[in-house]
Fold:
Amino acid sequence: MGNTIRKIFRIITYFSLGVFSLISPASLQAQINAEQVLTIGRNVLSMDDYMLAIQYFNQAIKAKPYLADPYFFRALAKLNLDDYAGAEADCTIAIENNKFKTEAYKLRGFARQLQGKDSLAIEDYNIGLTYNPIDKNFLFYKAVAQTELKEYEGADSTLNTLLRQYPRYDDGYTARARLRLERNDTVAALDDIEKALSISKAQINPYLMKAEIFWKRKDWPNAASAIDAAIRLRPEVPDLYINRAFVRYNSDDFFGAMSDYNYAIELDPNNSAAYFNRGLLRYEVKDLSKADDDMTQVLRLNPDNVHARFNRGLIRLEEGKNQEAIADFRTIESKHPRFYPIYYAIAEAERNLGNFRQAAANIRKGEELVANYVHDPEKNPLDRPAIAASETHSVKADGRMEEESETEVMERFNHLVTISQAVDQNLTYNEKIKGRVQDRNVNVEMEPSYALTLVAPGESLKSLSNYFRDLDDLNRMRILNYPLYLSAGLNSSDYGNMMNELFEISSRLEQASETGLRPADYLLLGVVETMLKNYPLAISNLDKAIAANPQFTVAYMARGYARYANARYFPTVNEQRNLSNNEEDAFLDRTAYTSLLQDAMSDFDKVLSLNPRVVFAWFNKGNIYYEAGDFTSAMQAYSEAIRIDPEFGEAYFNRGLAYLNSGNKNQAFSDLSKAGELGVIPSYNILKRMK
Structure:
């Protein structure tokens, strides 16, 4: 709800399920590696693992620096990491290598818009439109950039073209509503907002704009209704509650306003606006001690907040803490010596202390400042009574500022703070090819499954030791040059610096395969490829390890995770309906996805048949059931893990989420509480929200 539309980008790329090999004959190595490493990098990018993806694209660029695609996809990864300048530079190289790659113009335009280079962004979009004059995304992005540049006529023309071609494009109506608001045409803006909502009620921006319109009209009931709808869509955004509290305050609903400020602080304990507003509200109802605490919290977060310091001084004055009040007022005086209200406040404090001479001196100083009030407030904005350059003042016929009463000054000085842009107007990248649909709009994530890795787990508050007897026996035998570990999930930030070493291990073992590898060697190769997120090749090598040793428990554990990870990034049912051309294809895709999960489950079952006390296999089974939506089976698997190890915090946490999804809040509360006790930190945030 401000003038600046912040653009948020998210790219998703297609995930291929082919089997890859990183090593080939020397004469073809550079060519094959460039293509295969690029493909794997795109797969990793689809998993939102941007740092690791960049490493793959770097390898492809070294092999074939004249290709456009490695630079283009590296730009995607950089954009997701907020490296906008880097993304722009990579797109420029991609365009130099292939000037017909229209997607690179679109991406570079994005990167430029995110840096405020809207004119340059429009140049890129215009080039893209020469190739396809009715491309929906080029038209939409161009209109947003034109609006940012206040090229309203051009933006209106672009949006009209867009909506003629795509009359059911809700984002287009939302963008035109924003443009009309910029031009102060609220009637037309409301019309576009209603059109956008008639197409989709799942977008938050139309509701925010409605709230803004009704807010300015002081139509508090309709403003509250619009913000309520926004909160239903984004209940995790604290600033929405601050804005609703402001509306409730103006509707004389003090209890509702206080409730919203309390919840905003629960969501964000460092939200200074919520503390400030709650402090003012408490001050108004004379809950002075708590009001003092809130203003102190604001000053802890921002020691230079003059408004909070002045209000704390007034609160302390009423509390009878005269010395502390004087200290606050003197601090303001040191930076803003012409802010006259502090001298009257100091005079009152001195009078309360019996210092009548000092009180009189401060009153005289205040009166002198009022009599000789600064004649150039724009030159000295911080010397104005309200200490805010944005405050408005009435002007006399001769051009001089109308002097205001102290009451008017203080009323504006103590006004509630609102968040002008609680949720940004999103500019999203709509050309989605493949991505982690299961992660969208999800506020709570289960604890990840356990995998084998070459990186030792870091220190944790959790009590679980990650002990796996069969793995410990393998490490004690020193068959491999590298110890293997069991870790909850694989985080590329833990092994990003091992990238070259991982490639070397893979290369060495692949080359040695001609003379024969031991089952443990295939296991190591499978673990390395799993870390590199090349799951098909990992599964292939682990197949060989198990074929050579059918009782290899550790290999089953490793293959179970690789199969699970491979299935997890397979297109989900809903996405496949969008990607497939017909229902028969969609059915085949769903069947393949289910088969991948069943294969992973069979590996964990085999682990348990060989060693029934491997809690991590039970835990991983629970995660598979959980993701498949079979919460009853998931709870049974987590319960088995807890039976074996009653200190397994992650199992309590995930079982708590399963109970929560099944509607059993009491049991969920119990499990999440136990998980928090055992060191699973996210438990407490969920418990707080449940309360």
In short: The mean pLDDT is 79. The chain has 34 helices and two strands. The radius of gyration is 31 Å. The first strand starts at residue 450 and ends at 453.
